[in-house]
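Notebook B, p. 112. Complex prediction, attempt 2.
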Amino acid sequence: MSKINPEFTNELKKFGAVNINACYNCGNCTAVCSLSTEDNSFPRMMLRASVLGLDTKIETSLDPWLCYYCGECSETCPREANPGELMMTLRRWLTAKYDWTGLSGLLYTSIPALIIGFILVAIAIIGVGYTMQFNVESIMEFGHDFEMFAIMGVFSLILVPNIIRMFWFTVLKEKIKVPLISYIKGVWDLILHMFTQKNALTCENNTFRWFEHFLIVIGYLLLLFTTVFLNWFETENTFVIWLGYIVGAIIFVFTFDFILSRIKKSKELSKFSHPSDWLFVIWLFLMGLSAFIVRIFIDTDLIDSNIWLYFVHLIILAQWALLIVPFGKWTHFLYRSFAMYFKKLEEDSK
Amino acid sequence: MKNKIGVYICHCGSNISDYVDVKKLNEITAKIEGVNIAKDTMFACADSTQKEIIDDIKSNELDSIVIASCSPKLHLETFRNVAIRAGLNPYNYVQVNIREQCSWAHSDDKKGATLKALQLVKAGIERVKRSQALEPIEISSRNVVLIVGAGVAGMRSAIELADMGTEVYLIEREYFVGGRTSQWNTLFTTDETGEQVIKRLYKKVISYKSITLFTGAEIVSKSGGIGKFDIKLKIKPRHIKPNCELDWKKFDKAVSVCPIEVEDEFNFGLTKRKAIFMNYKSEFPQIPAIDTENCNRCGECVKICPEIDLDQKDEILNIKVGAILLTTGADPYEPKKDEYGYKTLDNVITLQQLKRLIELNDDKNLSYKGKKIKDVAFIYCVGSRQEEGGNTYCSRYCCTSAIHSAILLKNKYRDIRNYHINRGIRTYGKQELLYKESSENGDIYLQFFEDKIPTVEKSKNGATIKVIDILTTNREIELEADLVVLVTGMVPRKDNTIAGILKVPIGRDKFFNEIHPKLRPVETVIDAVYIAGACQAPRTIRESIDSALSATAKANSLISKGKIDLEPTLAQIDTSTCEWCGKCVDVCPYSAIKKVEKEGKQIAEIIESNCKGCGMCMPVCPSNSIQLIGYTDTEIESMIEALIS
């Protein structure tokens, strides 16, 4: 027995759902989806649950994470109910559900909150700079410390608890009995999906987009590697320096392409852009770009006279690390791969 | 006896010749006495063959022909025309059906099929030998049509007939014109209101001198037939003196003093009305009525309005018409007591009641029985598409109407939430746009199968509905509704006495039945009695008008020439042997026999314009005094003999 909750669609609208009530359940979306299988049949079922407001059904489902948004369902939908965008919306909604702090939900649904958050972070960074009297040496040192602590803090305080919550909703609460060995066997899949997103290749005509996305992920991880870890150990290795340049460039070039397609709405998946989508691509772009330029300034010893540049970079970095990574779209990197992992556990339990 | 007979045996491509040995059949036929020419042909109906037959008739001076081919239903007219073109009387032609009744039926037994075909052909030859040349019967007709029911279909047809120069009697049983349409407000697709549509039609109707409108009028009896009906009408009094200007203030006062309160059928029982009434102020004719059945003649209203005359009596009027068109409409299905809580729960109403409820409420809040309505649940197919017991048909209009009402609700009262519990939405054609609009408005659709129907139970705030939703993997879905609307379809009029008076056939669905659903959709087996609109089947306004216009054309083309040709194959009374017993009258389904006195003797007489040549009277006649022309005893007996020889 499930009770209808007609107000649920209004909640989903804030998370970005477009016209989902138009669905008349023909099931073309599910039929055309390359990833939908008999056992994991989507997106129609998710659309149905959304329209009726069966939020517990959605909360316990991993299906939204199995979708890579190729957009074919939305293209095929005779009622223009945008099932693809709904799956995206549900991922945002689930992200908010998993987040124990509740900040995700706030930042996803309220633009004022988002702006205030970004401003607060910027003020804090400027404040720190002020206390250090804008001394280059100490500020850069603070930057490195900040990076390290922010990563560790966000991971241990936000992301890990949230993953556990996700595990609770989708596996434990559903009373799925998983053999212990499966947890170990599944780890390889988890890592594989996390770094390759290989299921996205199953989507039709998606190879180039997958490749772009793959390069950004790898580029992002390497940037983290070069700027955070190696800088911390103050390596002067030429290879690392050049790698820093290359990955910085990769990120801002490909994210620029992503931004362009969102502006031009050239693909089905770029037709609707939620503020969180814009923030994600723009900040990733700015990170790549500012890291690249800061690198040049450091290597040409111009950074001392242009401390403001490093400051800008640091503000972007802090906003990224404190808002987008723990509460925004960045989390799909983890949730999606863990969804694959949990799905595997679920399959093993049968 | 005909003795120069031409016989043609058709292969029908291979439909006949695959199973019947046509060549052999032809050889034997040629030797039968009286047969002048016997031929087999690939397609008897082909133009070239028709020409060949005509040439044969002319050059061999044939006096009759037999064609052994398909069913006469398919090609009787074709070959009768061949005979006419060759100068032969069409009734000297006999068609033998060796396809439907032989080759197709006996495809497993070629020898048997050939033998049966031979016997059938022999019988056909015997019949044609005894055939008589017949001429169509010509009767005169009146260029006057009686239209029963002044709803949209009736009024539209009246206007069109008047335009074509036909005189029209338009009668309406109620005191006001407009029928069901006047009860509906905004209509899809034009957004006009029912009131506006009726007003337009009425203004046009009364602008014609050749249309005579009677309200409160019913047919009492009918005599005569095609071209010459004599109709007796009963006209209820309105109790308002003729030709007087009505003062609306006085009328309102008269209404307020009237002590009688009855259920208001116009609002489907949602309100009460007085014995003196008008359903709405702009209703036509613009004269109130006092309904005779409920008025207790207290005279209170007369004290206020001297125009009221309580002494008026029923009027009987005889009219003569050439054809009759029935546009009597339909009733909404009335749910059984406790069907989804109907009449047992406070907040369960029908779709028709909802439509009135929307009209009766102001623009701010929708309330029913004093309670504000927010959640409205529509349960579809109530009394329609029922496997057992109820009506098996789909009423066609109700999905659209329910969705249209849901949109009206949403537009009028923003915070309304609609739930549509349906069995598959059938908003065909342009009406699909409404379905889309309603979905996009946020209306929620749930779907059930007939074997697991939703349940409606009383709850604290209204009703709890539980549905096994087939769109959500048969999950049981529960919802709360302030108002439950049963989407009921159309059923035939409760009072359908007119069908008995006119002997119009009733179909299995209890609606009036046409001759052929595709080819003759507005004619009935009673000549010159036509049907249109929702009395024939559930229909939208548009579809009702469509059928009314086609019936208009049929009626006009039949009677406007002043004379009508009838088939000569009628019953014939042998006046020398008939001893009036009345048995034939009892069995005749068309009222085509009457008692007359001739030369001091009581005998039966056939009313030619009514007789359809069905032959029901023949076997019951104890003195064998009735013959059916074209199917006389001698013809039939000779056929039987040939068949068993």
